[in-house]
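FAQ

Q: What does a record look like?
A: Structure on top, sequence underneath. For example:
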């Protein structure tokens, strides 16, 4: 793991992985005279779909210093049928998307910290792009952990999920939660290549957690702003929550996470925790 993003090498690996996952039959392509020795589309097929030369695709996949234009990035995204998150990731790797050059958020914006408190009794917390927990209300602390008892270096939701002993069995669908978190971190990693703290955090996870290392190598990219989680609370029992992640226009590097009960039993459990 390098200390900074090697965008050329990562783009090469990402393009290869996206090409190899495609099924030629989905494109109506003929089987060809030669059998396919590797899965997915051939380079010449991607080149034809994207309207570029085969040599250009070869040089991209061999990390030979090319920087695709906006038009080429868009053509590759269409040819490889990238999802919106993957498309944004490719734009970031090609350095073709405007960046926020402001200082990275390491503390909660005061209006957002007040909003987190005002959202009670809904559990809520504020994070930055690397999942550092910047602010939280009492309901979130009672649901997850008392963040005040943790050193600042451990106030990171991915670190807690992977490393904290009380959190390893907290999520009923742990692999999905970890997989979605990794897909977000990969997008953040490409969007913030200057963030050494994020790169060091990812390197720590790869070194210390085999599950993270395995899933990171799959190169999934997704920014998930809505969904559900099933939680195993040690006192309140099983709680199913719907979550929503909001990004303030004034502070786009900060993310507001809000939990809501998904059913009556979960609401009753949250009410019992709030009453403590």
């Amino acid at each position: 793991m390098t200390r900074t993003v090697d965008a050329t090498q990562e783009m090469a690996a990402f393009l290869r992985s996206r090409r190899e996952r495609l099924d030629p039959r989905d494109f109506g392509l003929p089987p060809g005279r030669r059998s396919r020795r590797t899965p997915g589309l051939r380079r010449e097929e991607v080149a034809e779909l994207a309207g570029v030369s085969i040599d250009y695709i070869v040089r991209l996949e061999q990390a030979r210093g090319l920087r695709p234009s906006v038009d080429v990035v868009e053509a590759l995204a269409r040819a490889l049928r990238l999802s919106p998150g993957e498309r944004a990731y490719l734009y970031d790797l090609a350095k073709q998307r405007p960046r926020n050059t402001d200082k990275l958020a390491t503390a909660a914006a005061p209006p957002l910290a007040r909003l987190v408190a005002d959202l009670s009794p809904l559990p809520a917390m504020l994070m930055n792009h690397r999942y550092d927990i910047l602010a939280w209300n009492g309901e979130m602390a009672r649901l997850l952990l008392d963040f005040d008892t943790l050193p600042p270096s451990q106030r990171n939701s991915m670190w807690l999920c992977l490393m904290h002993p009380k959190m390893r069995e907290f999520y009923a669908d742990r692999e999905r939660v970890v997989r979605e978190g990794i897909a977000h971190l990969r997008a953040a990693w490409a969007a913030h290549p200057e963030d050494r703290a994020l790169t060091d955090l990812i390197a720590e996870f790869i070194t210390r957690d085999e599950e993270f290392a395995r899933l990171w190598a799959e190169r999934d990219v997704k920014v998930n702003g809505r969904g559900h989680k099933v939680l195993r609370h040690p006192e309140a029992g099983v709680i199913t929550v719907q979550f929503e992640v909001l990004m303030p226009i004034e502070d786009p590097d900060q993310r507001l996470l809000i939990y809501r009960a998904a059913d009556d039993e979960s609401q009753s459990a949250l009410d019992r925790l709030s009453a403590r």
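Q: Is there anything notable about this one?
A: The radius of gyration is 21 Å.
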